[in-house]
Amino acid sequence: MRRLVLWDIDGTLVQAGEVGRDIFTEAFQAVLGRDPDQVTAKALVMAGRTDPEIALEFLAAHEIAEGASHLPAFSEALVTALAAKAAVIRERGRALPGAREALVALGRGDGVVQSLLTGNLQPNALLKLASFELDGYLDFEVGGFGSDHHHRPSLVEVARAKAERKYGTGFPGTATVLVGDTPLDVAAGRAGGARVVAVATGPYRADELRATEADAVLEDLRDTEAALAAILG
């Protein structure tokens, strides 16, 4: 069976230096011309959500009318803000233990296509992974990104459709595997009928992830053989 393995980024493959909240603040400043409320900024829930979804909530919390009309400019500002922090990401961030080894091992398998399912905008996804030289293991042409859709569960079908067009074969049901670190990652995969592997390297513990009924839960990716067994089922 061919497999489409869709990786989450933050908390699953990398820790990107905790710059997420900063770039939303800077994007708000660039688009609205004023500082956001700091209490509101600190209260943003970001894990497992798409950048456009977070941006819409951030704008609504500031009572910005017609927030969706600001999304194109806000997204552009997020890309600019993250690009300016590339050195900070490399200095403060890291590839998570076992991530590179898991990517390499899966890449050796016949019929495995590796890409992303992430709330990041596509340029930001590439920057984060390239910062730790993980980008070469993944096919960015067939992933699902925040720039494709603000609704994370919809990204499963987005990625499948791209992969089918490129590779000439479908990846229905559990031929698609989503690997992430939050309950929202699990929910997105289950909504799309995919196999879901949860990794407890983000903000949630393994027991919390087991409660989501993921198909498999890993403490981390250090054990490459165990990671492959969980992902390939």
Question: Would you write up a description of this structure?
Answer:
By secondary structure, the protein is α/β, with parallel strands linked by helices. It folds into 2 domains: 3-16 and 93-232, Rossmann fold (3-Layer(aba) Sandwich), CATH 3.40.50.1000; 20-84. Helices cover 45% and strands 12% of the residues. The chain is built from 11 helices and 7 strands. The chain has helices spanning 20-32, 38-42, 51-61, 71-83, 86-92, 99-107, 122-130, 154-167, 183-191, 206-210, 224-232, and strands spanning 3-7, 14-15, 94-95, 112-116, 176-180, 195-199, 216-218. The chain has a 5-stranded parallel sheet with strand order 4-1-5-6-7, with helices on both faces. Helix 1 crosses helix 4 (71-83) and helix 6 packs across helix 11. The longest helix has 14 residues, at 154-167. It is globular, with a radius of gyration of 17 Å. The termini are close together. 42% of the residues are buried.
**What is the SS-derived class?**
alpha/beta
Separation of the first and last Cα atoms? 11 Å
- Which stretches are low in confidence, meaning pLDDT under 50 for 5 or more residues running? none
Approximately how much helix is present in the residues?
Answer: 40-55%
Order of secondary-structure elements? EEHHHHHEHEHHEHEHEH
What name does the CATH topology of the largest domain carry?
Rossmann fold
Largest sheet: 5 strands, parallel
CATH class of the largest domain: Alpha Beta
- The CATH superfamily label of the largest domain reads HAD superfamily/HAD-like
pLDDT average, as an integer? Answer: 93
CATH architecture of the largest domain: 3-Layer(aba) Sandwich
Task: Give the quaternary arrangement of the chains.
Answer: single chain
Tally of discrete structural domains:
2
The tally of strands reads 7
How much is the radius of gyration in Å? 17 Å
Strand order of the largest sheet: 4-1-5-6-7
Strand content: 5-15%
- Globally, the shape reads globular
Count the helices. How many? Answer: 11
